[in-house]
Amino acid sequence: IYAAFEEFSYDSLAIAMATAIKRFNSTKYKSVKLLLNSNLKDNFKALVEGAILGSYSFDNYKSEKEIKKQELAFVIEDKNLQLSTILKESQTICEAVNSARNMVNTAPADFTPKSFVKEAQSILNKQPFYKTRKIKPVITLDEFIKFRDKMARPS
Q1: Whole-prediction pTM value?
Q2: Among the residues of the chain, which ranges form H helices?
Q3: Cβ count within 10 A of residue 21
Q4: Are 31 and 73 in contact (CB under 8 A)?
Q5: pLDDT, greater one: 67 or 7
Q6: What is the percent of the chain where pLDDT is above 90?
Q7: Would the CA dihedral through 59, 115, 137, 155 be positive or negative?
Q8: Are 149 and 141 contacting, i.e. CB atoms less than 8 angstroms apart?
């Protein structure tokens, strides 16, 4: 799979990577490997985020969801802590972006304020800092709904 880009910038590489991943997802290939040279290694964040964001698809309303087991591997000469850190941070950022995409793409009738609060609590409960610090919600769901309804009424 070939993908062209204009320059070694974050935007160009992320867009090229997203395009390549979309093409890869439309094939029957099981895996793809990307050999990182020094220029690509310097732009690893763009490649990772382009790949993850490019593989996003919203299929909540499809009756038959297609499950493919495809794999992307970045091939590097030497593994280092900086690349591992970039990978973890980029995965976290992209998971958040894709969660927001799911929320936006869900029909309003299915994604009510109540379900939004439940989703937010679910996301928060997955965060390690939330579990260790025992952060409590400032208001309950019922208090939030009453506040929302009060603000929505004209004076």
Answers
A1: 0.73
A2: 10-25, 38-42, 44-54, 81-105, 113-125, 128-133, 141-152
A3: 23
A4: yes
A5: 7
A6: 26
A7: positive
A8: no
